[in-house]
Design goal:
This protein has a 3-stranded antiparallel sheet with strand order 2-1-3, with no helix packed on it. It has no helices and 3 strands. The protein has a domain of 35 residues. 0% of the residues lie in helices and 19% in strands. A hairpin with a 5-residue loop joins strand 1 and strand 2. By secondary structure, the protein is mainly beta.
């Protein structure tokens, strides 16, 4: 069951909808079927303990990309 995100063209309400088969979504606020699909973003969850730890900022210059990202020698 895919979840889609929409913005209603009639009332500008933003919402998510489960869409089954060939069904068309409708705005839950005004019931309009004039919808604009939104670009959806999805999240991925890593299993506990399998994710790599995030590096902190560079100790020499504070570059947020981490040690060695700026090219300065530590």
């Amino acid at each position: 069951m895919p979840i889609f995100e929409y913005v209603c063209k009639e009332c500008q309400h933003s919402f998510e909808a489960l869409v089954y088969g060939k069904e068309k979504a409708a705005c839950p606020k005004c019931e309009s079927k004039k919808l604009e699909p939104k670009l959806s973003v999805f999240a991925v969850s890593a299993k506990s303990g399998s994710a790599m730890p995030m590096a902190g900022p560079c100790g020499s210059c504070g570059d947020p990309r981490g040690p060695g990202a700026c090219g300065m020698k530590n």
